[in-house]
Design brief:
Elements (H helix, E strand, L loop, with lengths): L1 E9 L3 E8 L2 H15 L3 E8 L12 H7 L3 E6 L3 E5 L7 E7 L5 E5 L2 H11 L11 E5 L6 H13 L3 E6 L3 E4 L1
Antiparallel strand pairs: 1-2, 1-3, 2-4, 4-5, 6-7, 6-8, 7-9, 9-10
């Protein structure tokens, strides 16, 4: 498999993402079929192979993913490395994880299962798999206006992962 950077120009937005496929033709077919299924017309679609040119700091788990991944959209998380998700979310979602003890944790991810995995991955857990009890909530109901405005571009262009709010710099990866 190969990794392709993709740019999707739609009527009202431009999205960037990655596709895992054996060649560019299949990557293009996958992207076009996905957009057809969700009823969104592409005005322009650009594809460029990147698995051979990524710098070392962006290759974490890439080779393993390419050896075993199905055709699909891929995302890189700073905590988790590269992973494939079969359906591209038009944008990621924000999940709030509320541990039984401790502060809320915010995670950008395609779904709640991945949000949970990214959060657990960021913790230093014991070898027996014990982890804190928690509740996960989708959405941004408790965020202030400034946080919501700064969050919008992250949901379209940010890698999945745990994030935190900094009053001076906005949302930052943990």
């Amino acid at each position: 498999m190969r990794l392709y950077a993709a740019k999707f120009v739609r009527t009202n937005e431009t999205l960037h993402g990655h596709i895992v496929a054996p060649n560019s033709e299949i990557a293009s077919e996958f992207a076009e079929e996905f957009h057809h299924r969700i009823g969104v017309e592409l005005e322009q679609f650009d594809l460029m192979r990147v698995d051979e040119t990524l710098p070392a700091e962006y290759r974490d788990s890439l080779d393993d993913m390419l050896e075993s991944a199905p055709i699909g959209f891929a995302t890189r998380s700073t905590q988790f490395g590269w992973f494939v998700h079969g359906v591209l979310q038009p944008r990621f979602k924000l999940y709030t994880i509320e541990p039984q003890r401790g502060d809320e944790v915010y995670v950008i991810a395609p779904n709640p299962d991945m949000a949970t995995a990214l959060w657990l991955w960021s913790l230093e857990l014991s070898d027996d798999g014990t982890h804190p009890l928690y509740r996960i909530v989708s959405g941004s109901a408790n965020l202030e206006d400034q946080q919501l405005k700064a969050l919008e571009p992250l949901l379209d262009h940010s890698p999945a992962g745990v994030i935190k709010w900094d009053e001076e710099r906005g949302w930052l990866p943990v």
